[in-house]
Amino acid sequence: MRAVIPYKNENAKSRLSPVLSKEEREEFVELMLEDVIKALNDAGMTTVDILTTSTEGIPKEFKGDLIVTEPGLNDSINEYLQNASEPVLIIMADLPLVTGDHIRKITSVSEDVVIVPGKGGGTNILFIRHPNEFTVKYHDCSFTSHCEITEDLDKSMHIFDSFLASTDIDEPHDIVELMLHGKGKAKEYAEKRFGSETGKGRVKISPLSKLSSFI
Ligand SMILES: Nc1nc2c(ncn2[C@@H]2O[C@H](COP(=O)(O)OP(=O)(O)OP(=O)(O)O)[C@@H](O)[C@H]2O)c(=O)[nH]1
Ligand SMILES: C[C@H](OP(=O)(O)O)C(=O)O
């Protein structure tokens, strides 16, 4: 079994640009990546590949294989899967709330395909027992696409239900969840930049350096 983390550092997380500069986003995604690698290592997964668009923003301590490909998430992952001869866990780099315990549970499921949905129709983690028979289709409500692809292949499927594993950090309001539930380096980074505002409704983040709140 091996894990692969698709990763793009350059101008990462453009949807966070209302609250973080380009440089901050590039630093932030590297820290989220470190948190994801730690969760994999905590689960005993030592065979970890990073499928990346460049060698920028890779944690210095990373010991696995770095596979550099052209931008294009689906093409690069599908090429990777075609060449895989053992079960593959595809885990996105923007999941700083994922723990070793989630990874252990996901990889213990006996079904052919395990899907961890992402917020708003995405796919945060895919565990595929027969990877060279599978094709991924990220973006455009990939959760639905991955369910359909699994069904079309006549494979068994398990949807892994977890608030923390399903929380990917895409938009400013997701940073609230990181500050509330995070434990690692990305949370530390967020705490240096944002405060939280509590009231009757949901907690909001606000910049520590300015008086006005942005969401
Ligand atoms: N290898 C590879 N990984 C990618 C590419 N685009 C995105 N990723 C990774 O795929 C995962 C999910 O991507 P998104 O959530 O869309 O991240 P993003 O593209 O940085 O964010 P936005 O600019 O806000 O869409 C993250 O781990 C990204 O680092 C790509 O072209 N190639
Ligand atoms: C890549 C994409 O990520 P999202 O835009 O949902 O974070 C997806 O999960 O299909």
UniProtKB/TrEMBL annotation:
Pathway: Cofactor biosynthesis; coenzyme F420 biosynthesis
Swiss-Prot/TrEMBL keywords: GTP-binding, Nucleotide-binding, Nucleotidyltransferase, Transferase
GO molecular function: GTP binding; phospholactate guanylyltransferase activity
SUPFAM superfamilies, alphabetized: Nucleotide-diphospho-sugar transferases
Record's catalysed reaction(s): (2S)-2-phospholactate + GTP + H(+) = (2S)-lactyl-2-diphospho-5'-guanosine + diphosphate
EC class (word): transferase
Function: Guanylyltransferase that catalyzes the activation of (2S)-2-phospholactate (2-PL) as (2S)-lactyl-2-diphospho-5'-guanosine, via the condensation of 2-PL with GTP. It is involved in the biosynthesis of coenzyme F420, a hydride carrier cofactor.
Family: Belongs to the CofC family.
PANTHER family xref list: 2-PHOSPHO-L-LACTATE GUANYLYLTRANSFERASE
Protein name: 2-phospho-L-lactate guanylyltransferase
Originating organism: Methanococcoides seepicolus
Gene: cofC
